[in-house]
Design brief:
Blueprint (H helix, E strand, L loop, with lengths): L1 H17 L14 H11 L10 E6 L5 E10 L24 E4 L2 E4 L2 H5 L1 H4 L17 E2 L1 H8 L12 E2 L11 E7 L19 E3 L4 E2 L5 H6 L11 E4 L3 E4 L19 E5 L4 E3 L17 E4 L3 E5 L18 E3 L25
Parallel strand pairs: 5-6, 9-11, 13-15
Antiparallel strand pairs: 1-2, 2-7, 3-4, 7-16, 8-9, 8-12, 10-11, 12-13, 14-15
């Protein structure tokens, strides 16, 4: 027994040297890795999980070697249906179509919106419906998923409304999220949000994604509407959110009346709803849309959905989003496309 205890101690020491524990957790006290792991497992109990969550070694975006929470989910919300997205006729109402973001606002992509595109964008090149029949030009089914998976294809499908439905994808998409158990502070200015990692994971197992490339999509006179929950589908990420409108499960925060937890960011901090029980947004958020308060520590509050920017940046080094659940997370060696220029001020 003494020999076994000595071996365990030596193993623990070796792991601590290879993957040193980080100093602080996401609350007001230091959690053990196991306690934090159990907290995260409980938060995602309603998600459609593949296999079992695990504690794994990982290398964060700044090169820090540590331990992470690994969870694989089906890339679809476990608690609400998806769609609709594109209207089919210019007589369709808001209930028959999705939404779109413009100038910080959320618009219904109903038939009237399609009719008024040239006016809305002050560009007479918009013509997304047949004036004689009123039928909207839609890329749907397998073609819709192909176009949704490649935004640069917008030039080949001008004046199309593009939608990809989960049932039209070639295979079920899963994604593995490898998130530090304890955040490790990055630079004082925060770490920019890239396109591949996403922002975080909603409690229902769907991805909180980086800003949608609206300029690229609109440049081809196309639309890729979101549904009423602020999400849409592509073949790589499955269903994912670009705005947060209140869909999905929520967990009460440990501070009374504070905005509830709705997810966990890729740097390990919790993500909370935009407003609290009194419909008030915190007035002390930093450029990443986070703040620190007694009883909760540092955490994020999501942005208004029309901003197309769920949070502003990462406070700390991030983990990985992997297509292969057996893959190893080294976020310091991920080929990221440049982040969107600039960070919006808090609204």
């Amino acid at each position: 027994m003494k020999q076994f205890s000595l071996m365990c101690a030596l193993l623990a020491y070796g792991l601590s040297q290879a993957f040193p524990a980080l100093a602080h957790g996401d609350g007001t006290h230091e959690d053990s890795a196991q306690a934090r792991f159990e907290t995260l497992v409980a938060l995602f109990e309603t998600a459609d999980i593949v296999g079992k969550p695990a504690i794994v070694p990982c290398t964060l975006s700044g090169g820090t070697k540590t331990t992470c929470f690994s969870i694989t989910t089906v890339a679809a919300p476990a608690d609400h249906t998806t769609g609709p997205f594109c209207p089919r006729r210019i007589t369709d109402t808001a209930s028959q179509a999705g939404t779109w973001f413009k100038d910080g606002e959320v618009y219904d992509v109903d038939g009237s919106f399609i009719q008024r595109l040239a006016e809305i964008y002050d560009d007479d090149q918009w013509q997304m419906y047949d004036p004689e029949t009123g039928k909207v030009t839609v890329a749907e089914g397998t073609l819709g998923c192909e176009v949704a998976g490649d935004p640069t294809s917008a030039d080949r499908y001008k004046n199309y409304c593009v939608e990809c439905e989960l049932q039209n994808m070639a295979a079920e998409v899963t994604q593995t999220y490898v998130i530090p158990l304890h955040p490790s502070d990055a630079s004082a200015d925060g770490e920019p949000i890239g396109h591949f990692s996403g922002i975080g994971l909603a409690l229902n197992g769907a991805k909180f994604d980086a800003p949608a490339p609206l300029d690229l999509i609109l440049g081809g006179h196309t639309l890729g509407p979101f549904d009423d929950c602020g999400g849409h589908v592509n073949p790589r990420s499955g269903y994912h959110y670009h705005g947060v409108v209140g869909c999905g499960p929520q967990v009460d925060a440990d501070v009374q009346d504070h905005a509830p937890i709705i997810g966990v960011a890729m740097d390990g901090y919790t993500m909370h709803a935009r407003t609290d029980a009194n419909d008030q947004e915190p007035d002390d958020l930093d450029g990443c849309r986070g703040h620190e308060i007694e009883g909760l520590g540092y955490h994020y509050h999501v942005n208004a959905p029309g901003e197309n920017q769920i949070t502003g940046c990462f406070k700390s080094e991030i983990g990985c989003t992997l297509d292969d659940p057996a893959g190893t997370c080294d976020a310091s060696n991920v080929p990221e496309r440049p982040a969107r220029p600039g960070r919006p001020e808090r609204h």
